[in-house]
């Protein structure tokens, strides 16, 4: 079953790559893949978190990091 799902996934991915290309959006969306282009958003979210919640922001941040780590570990063990 996993092999058939993998074949379907490869087929759909290659079909999207061939048929849904855009000369306008392709160069723009390359910037979204770079990890440094997301840095201003992360800085904004952290500053918003600390200005909104004050000292409670540390708790929210700790639980958010715990949740991200937990979901990443669960997802990597499933796949």
Give the tags.
mainly alpha; 79 residues; single chain
Portion in strands = under 5%
The end-to-end span amounts to 14 Å
**Poorly predicted regions:** none
Continuous helix count: 4
Major sheet: none
Helix content: over 70%
- Shape verdict: flat
Q: Radius of gyration over alpha carbons?
A: 19 Å
- Pairing-aware structural class of the strands and helices? mainly alpha
Order of helices and strands: HHHH
Total E-strand runs: 0
- Output mean pLDDT: 90
What is the topology?
Elements: H1 2-19, H2 25-33, H3 39-53, H4 57-78
Helix pairs in contact: 3-4
Task: Describe the model.
The chain has 79 residues and is an all-alpha fold. Helix content is 81%, strand content 0%. The chain is flat, with a radius of gyration of 19 Å.
Short description:
The chain is mostly helical.
